[in-house]
Amino acid sequence: MNVNNPHSIENFLTSGWRGYFSLWTAIWRYYIVGRILALFVAGICVLYLGFFGWFFGLLIWFPYWLWSLVTLWRSAPNSPWPILGLLARIWVYLEVVLAIFNIDRLTLTSW
Questions:
Q1: Is 21 left (phi over 0), alpha (psi -120 to 50) or beta?
Q2: ∠ CA(75), CA(77), CA(79), 5° rounding?
């Protein structure tokens, strides 16, 4: 495992976790496009694997969701306009609060 390699997955994950990306990169590449791809893969798991697909879908979706929120939060100050960083952090805060207070809607028993 070579962490000093700039193209390694370890460097990619820790760079996001530490907030080294620009705000533009954090929003468009990893928050929007990355989430669409992760949700697509999780949806494929649910469609083709049945009951176990929910488990695999959550194993794919939840860590990426958490990583994208941390990446967006910590990359917020890397914007040339401070107001955009503030708006990004407000967005992350609201998303987490909404997820916490609507956790009962994420279970299969409420459907």
A1: beta
A2: 90
What percent of the chain has pLDDT above 90?
A: 47
CB of 23 closer than 8 Å to CB of 84 = yes
Q: Which of 59, 64, 70, 65 is nearest to 21 (CA)?
A: 70
Mapping DSSP to helix (H, G, I), strand (E, B) and coil, where does residue 108 land? Answer: helix
Query: Which residues are CB-contacts of 111 (< 8 A; sequence separation ≥ 6)?
Result: none
- Residue closest to 75 by CA, chosen among 110, 101, 67: 67
Can you give the pTM of this predicted structure?
0.81
Residue ranges of alpha helices (H) inside 19-109 are 23-24, 34-49, 51-75, 82-101
Residues 6+ apart with CB under 8 A from 69: 92, 95, 96
Phi, psi of 2 (to 5 degrees): -110, 100
Between 102 and 59, residue with greater pLDDT: 59
